[in-house]
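pinned: reference chain
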Amino acid sequence: MLTFEKGYNFVMLLCIYNIFALSVAKPSPNSGRLVMCDLRRESNLGNLMQCNVNKGHFLDYRDIRNWSEKAHDKKYSVRINCAGGIIYLPWPFKAKNIISLEVYRCKVLGFLSEMTVKQHIADELKTVILSDITVEIPFREMILLRDRINQVPKSTDCGQLTMEKLILKDIHYDLKMTPEERDGVQQASFAGNAGHNSVKQQDPCIYKSLKYIDESGSRKSGQYHLKLIPEHSKFPALEVYNMSGNEMGHVPNAFRHLHSGKFPALRHIDFSNNFLRTFEFDLPTDPKTCRLEIVDLRNNHINAIPSAITQRLKNIGNILVDVRHNPLKCGCRLAPFRQYLESQYHKVTDVQKRQRVAEITCINGSILHRKLNKVSILKATFDKKCQR
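pinned: its structure tokens
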């Protein structure tokens, strides 16, 4: 369910779904309000509505939704490219006969305007891609939604349960406040009261077909942040989850328990290019049911892997923890992990995995004596001294 907190954790646990509607009685949107959209066929997408929204122009998603409602027995993909233009895209943007939505480089208005509206359109979306998007949210709308949080229906909270691929890449949120509202927040501490709302727990959102999620690159661009996947969701078919480049100092609780029934088919989880300092995942315990292959932690601030984690890795035997470009310190604390990587290198036959292991380095030397050298963890011999 939706929850509110200050800072990066202002989390609106929703999920992404729907899109645009098209009218087919006369399959030509080039009239009225859809003059910037054209229909064509593409081999990989079938019937495609392509909309180009240039600077100074405005596209209302609700017009596309009304258009698609008349598309009898035809399915459409919608692709919107903005070059300085603005679109009105209310959550959850469900639309009849739309199976794919792609939105690139747009400024989005009206995002929260339909949050408490019960959805009567059946789920159809299989692909959702929002990339390089700025979502403008009026502070007044956010407060109103907070006060009506228990009026958000499950059909809106979960969104399109038919999704197979979800990409929310480089999403930024711009909270608009008047000077009076900003002063009121500072004096009354909005966030301090937000957590006291009673939130009704809903049944889990179960995405039976969703195999790929990319929520990378949504760096903190303001005081508040939206997260678009409900915490109470389950992903029985999910194989890849990408949360790289989000300026995270810690792994959110929803991702820590990789042994739970939340991600039973997960093969690859990516938290690279963040600010993590420790390994925070609770790994699977049963090698017979574990599907996890790679935990990508490249380009973080990790200097050691706890021995308990290494022992769990040894028990499972097939998980690669990719810690390239981290400040790992050569020393006895790292010895068990070095030995595990060595066994992985000799055991795996996949060339790319072997290369990943070979490129992991640790720092050898002393800051005091200003002698610091990066050495391949496979070629390091510090662990032999630890055995004495």
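why pinned: The chain has a mean pLDDT of 81. Residues 32-238 form one domain.
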